[in-house]
Amino acid sequence: MTDAERTIPYSQSPPPSDIVQNFGQLLESLEESDVEFEVEGEIFAAHKLVIAARSPVFKAQLFGAFKDQNTKCIRVEDMKAPVFKALLHYLYWYVFPDVEESFSLNSKWAKTMMS
Question: Cα(97)–Cα(74) distance, rounded to whole angstroms?
């Protein structure tokens, strides 16, 4: 019997990918997080490999030519905390969070994000 004759044809489709769900759950659980971002005094934990894979800016900051001296806690000075939280949500879940849930619709930041 040849190898081709022994091969059993694959009759089922593989299950749909749940990698986005897995990444999102990783962010929510903070399991094995290895970097923190300080934004307006608020600390956000994350995973270097995930955010570096999703953002060339974070990749350069964490692993490249622009690597910070301290990659355990990175201070972000040019962003509001709720905006950074929404950015992390997007990097892990591949969708932006609900603006009404994340921001007060009366805030100037929500209006900026929606315009």
Answer: 23
Task: Name the strands in the sheet holding 35-39, side by side, starting at the edge strand that comes first in the sequence.
Answer: 42-46, 35-39, 73-76
Give the residue among 86, 83, 61 at the shortest CA–CA distance from 72: 61
pTM of the model: 0.70
pLDDT at 108: 53
Confirm if 109 and 80 have CB atoms less than 8 A apart.
Answer: yes
Distance separating alpha carbons of residues 63 and 50, to the nearest angstrom:
12
What are the tens digits of pLDDT across the range 22-68?
A: 888 999 998 899 999 999 999 999 999 999 999 998 998 899 876 76
The whole-angstrom separation of Cα 67 and Cα 69 is 7
